């Protein structure tokens, strides 16, 4: 026996109360995305600073090719900034499209906003699974090396 979804029997309605909620959500999403972009800028600046200026340290010790570990740390910061850029871009696009959709009652912008929100959460979910997997691999490696 096939069950019918309750959503197939009626059209969803976005009333004024829901529009108010979505407007507030888009404002917060816009604020958080801008804050994230500023954070990315600081990460890139810090990564460049660590890469170049720490190498000038006179107490740096023995370094390969004059760079040492500071270049690796700087590249690590820049890599993480690049990874964080994409979910923030999706969040920013969600906020802009949602504001535009609510202002002009444009269904395409409304659809595009939720497409970007879906992409944002999909990216965050996959990234979280990858990090958890990395933790498991590190834990197994640490346990394996402690046994020998």
Describe this structure in words.
With 148 residues, this protein is an all-alpha fold. It has one domain. It is built from 3 helices and no strands. Keywords: Membrane, Transmembrane, Transmembrane helix. InterPro entries: DUF5362 (IPR035287). This is DUF5362 domain-containing protein.
Q: So how many helices?
A: 3
Mean pLDDT: 88
Give the class from helix and strand content and strand pairing. mainly alpha
Shape: flat
SSE string, helix = H, strand = E? HHH
Major sheet attributes: none
InterPro entries: DUF5362
Protein name: DUF5362 domain-containing protein
Transmembrane segments: 28-53, 73-92, 123-143
Keywords: Membrane, Transmembrane, Transmembrane helix
Helix-strand blueprint:
Elements: H1 16-53, H2 69-104, H3 107-147
Helix pairs in contact: 1-2, 2-3
Keywords: Membrane, Transmembrane, Transmembrane helix
Protein name: DUF5362 domain-containing protein
Transmembrane segments: 28-53, 73-92, 123-143
Question: What structural keywords apply?
Answer:
mainly alpha; 3 helices
Characterize this entry briefly.
By secondary structure, this protein is mostly helical.
């Amino acid at each position: 026996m096939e069950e019918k979804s309750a959503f197939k029997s009626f059209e969803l309605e976005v009333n004024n109360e829901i529009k108010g909620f979505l407007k507030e959500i888009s404002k917060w999403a816009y604020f958080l995305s801008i804050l994230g972009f500023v954070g990315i800028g600081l990460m890139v600046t810090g990564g460049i600073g660590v890469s170049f200026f720490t190498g000038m340290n006179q107490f740096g010790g023995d370094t390969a090719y004059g760079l040492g570990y500071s270049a690796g740390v700087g590249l690590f910061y820049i890599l993480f900034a690049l990874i964080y850029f994409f979910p923030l871009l999706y969040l920013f696009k969600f906020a802009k499209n949602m504001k535009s959709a609510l202002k002009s009652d444009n269904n395409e912008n409304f659809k595009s906003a939720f497409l970007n929100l879906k992409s944002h959460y999909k990216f965050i979910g996959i990234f979280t699974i990858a990090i958890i997997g990395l933790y498991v691999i590190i834990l197994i490696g640490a346990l394996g090396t402690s046994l020998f």
